[in-house]
Fold this sequence. Notes:
With 69 residues, the protein is of the alpha+beta class. The chain has one helix at residues 31-48; strands at 6-9, 15-19, 24-28. Strand 2 (15-19) and strand 3 (24-28) form a beta hairpin. The N and C termini lie far apart (37 Å).
Amino acid sequence: MQLTAVLMPAPEGGFTALNPETGTSSQGETLEDALANLREATALYLDEFPLTAHGRPVLTTFDLPAHAA
């Protein structure tokens, strides 16, 4: 099963990883650690709550006016 991972630098160092299909998240010191931890967290989640297909997430970006940032 192929799922989506969004990896972001964490303010305290390392990375935060999020799977939008399930809402699971995890952390790790490196990108590889964060992804491995997310994979484990998502597998455990799916053992309890099987995924029903709703389509793939769409990833995009958007801008805010400078005064809103």
